[in-house]
Amino acid sequence: MSAAPQKAKAGGGTIDVVVRAIVPLNDLVTRFEFERPDGAPFPPFSPGAHTIVEMNDDGRPRKNPYSLMSDPSDTSHYAISVRRDDEGRGGSRFLHTAVSVGDRLSVSYPVNLFPLDLRARKHVFLAGGIGITPFLSMIAQLERQGGRWELHYACRSESLASYADDLTGRHANKVHVYYSDRKEALPLEDLLDGQPLGTHVYVCGPKGMIDWVKTTAADHGWPGDAVHAEEFLAPQPGDPFDVHLARSGIDVHVEPHESLLEAIERAGVDAPFLCRGGACGQCETDVIEADGELIHADHWLEDDQKASGKKIMPCVSRFAGKKLVLDR
Amino acid sequence: MSRFQFPESIASRPVYGTLEPRPGKAHLMIADAEGAEALLDLAVRDPALVRAAHIIYIPKGTGESYVPRLEMCGPAQFHVAPSYEASVPRLRRVLTDAHMGLQLYLAGTEGLMGQAMSEAIEHGLPQRSIQREHRGSVARRMQCVHCKGITEDVTTDPFVCAHCGLHLFVRDHYSRRLAAFQGVRVDAEDPGNVPDPVELYQ
Amino acid sequence: MTMQFNTETFRDDYSFRNSDWAIRRFPFPFHEDSYMYSVNMEQHRGGPEGSVYEKRFDVDEHYVSEMHDRALVLAEDPLRCQSLPHMTLAGWDLLELIMVSKSEDYPDLFELHRDGNQWRWINKPLGIDDTFTFLDETTLPYGPMEYITRQTQGDFAVLDQREENLWMDAGMVTTQADWSLDFDIGMNFFEWHAPVPRAHEMGIFKRALKFLLNVQQGSPARRLNWTMTVNPRLDTSPENYHKWGVEKTTLTPENIGAKQHLRVELQTFFRLPRSNALVFPIRCYLIAFQDIVTVPKWGRRLHRVVRDLPEDLADYKGFIANRPLMLDYLSQYDDGLPTSPGVWPDLETEPPLQK
Questions:
Q1: Residues of C whose CB is below 8 A from A118
Q2: Where is the FAD-binding FR-type domain (chain A) (predicted)?
Q3: CB burial class (10 A; 0-12, 13-18, 19+) of residue A72?
Q4: Structural domain harbouring B108
Q5: Which residue of B103, B124, B128 is in closest CB contact with A197?
Q6: Are residue B54 and residue B152 in the same domain, yes or no?
Q7: Most exposed among A20, A133, B23, C218, judged by the fewest C-beta atoms under 10 Å?
Q8: Active site annotation includes C70
């Protein structure tokens, strides 16, 4: 064996795909289905996994993470559902407006940062809006294995409730939908009460919902390891800034609608990543010098690490100030 | 004094803390012998918590020393069992119908805490819903790695396996599932050369 | 079939032997003249042709006899193979990984024919031809992990990933370096490594865990580990320590070359796609000292490593009592010449022994 470990390719392997179907679900959400150009089966995946879709948006490379929502036992295709974010940096808008059936894209091997705890006696799923997507693959798997589950799904309105009809049609007794425009609230305290030992709760939705579920569960005596959460932070646009990559000896300008990580990649510097959503810790980078303010947006770094000004997660975090030097 | 400061050891060896009141939907407390003192301390800090609790207590040679004082705390349910084994059917009944939000408080010997914890985890209670405070005897529950038999209340190193009769040395390697430390033949490489037993932690 | 399989034993009369081919491809673990713990991970994406790193699951001349030895161990002690209830899906993952890999890497030895979930598996060296339904345990004679690992060299630890840790919740362990699956099952990464000296203080396990948690589908990894064993015994379990421990005292200057073996583990790590578990195959390779020293570079280097290893590591690896005897033997094969970097034998370029 060699003395020096080989360097892994950032983000792991990728799979070439062809868009086989584009299915608009409502005003905001569209499903994209991929197959392989040679018709070969996809690698199997575990429910809760995401894939990173690589796009070439008018010369600008974009890599966005989306939960795989297809049935994990069906390896003929992968499917994702994408909510259009008009305020965002453009990845979701690119998929909605510039991608057609038959187009070729590249997706990463599945990575799971939100797996089922297979020891659970029962799974309780709490979805907010587009946070429904990972639960679709989880439900498909549990139905096949005969696992116990229930879903509580909070949506803005009936017209924006992706997959709600389908789910309630097939699993009327297990699926509960709450519409905020009808002043319906997800009865969290009630549903945490009386769950059998070995129940695990999973929440996917906006940050406020995740915090609410975690706090309420803790108040009811649920330990943290029985409460699972996934919040993908889409990188938010911001003011442009400049960064110097000390190891590579390169200066990079970060545009308003690209992330620091994307700018580093655009400059030809290979940087590690897995989730591109501030959760997995892979892209953690040392800050050598920062004359200005690091705008931390991740939930990986501890508060003291953020305060130290010595670390940054370039997939979601930005900078405002005169000079930023990174060890990259 | 029933407290003992265990020397620092390897990562599999359990570390015990001090029982703290925690929010929860139900509170189950199991203690043996001097473990009662930890529950009494808890009752001083949070009398309402202990009044809401179900206590299972195994005096294990302490006779009536602690029973009346525990009873005085006014637990919602109070059961005195002659041994851990005798309490197991009751414990299983309680765990089978328990809900998430249950807090389990264990106090006393390592053997008692380990076995009750293993039973609770087996029933689906998350490990982080369980607190442990060691009090009293430092005797160990040992598994013979060769015959798999468990020897209770081991106080010397080496000791004789109660099942196969081999002389075993006492390791700090601990299995949560078995609720036991590992015992390995002490004279495997030199049969018959068995060192004199010494008291644990001497 | 192109490969010739030895008929040999790993117990009693110890008729195990390495051919010249097996000696030259032995995974010698020391890349320099000294040894200290390190995370030493690298990608498991093939290796030089004919090396043990080339295929995902290496099959060699010892295959059939090793599987026979495993069957003997399991007949004596079924607790060597266990799977906690939530690990069944990971067992199917492992079965799929091994069947697909072996049928692609050794098409002359193994065949897999799939029609949906109806699978037919042919293992020519072991004379197996079974048809079963994938993901249906009732159609196999054993659980999926046990079924496939009774047909695959090496031990297998199947690790559940949760709470930022890895949990040894299933395994097939019959060729181990003195650890007990029955005792360690259910432990997390730090707990089952607890008895290893030094490495905790050095932060080795923290770094290794961080690496392993991020091993992804399609990107397996590997590393080597090593210890010493007297006699070519695969089953050096704590369960049987009272039977094999005494063999350590049988070494003499006359028999050490034949009896003393270097034991190397090729450890690989694969993410299992359906369960998100991680499988940790631990493949054991044995080589007699007298065979190692036929490679001059390895003879020189092994002497230096054994001589300079710190006491606590020599004790943990179980050879401190025999170290003087080992050094007397090995010093005959160390002429003090420098050695080339890296693990390969370099038979063409390294000088022969100068004494």
A1: 86-87, 89, 160, 275
A2: 12-117
A3: buried
A4: 26-134
A5: B124
A6: no
A7: B23
A8: no
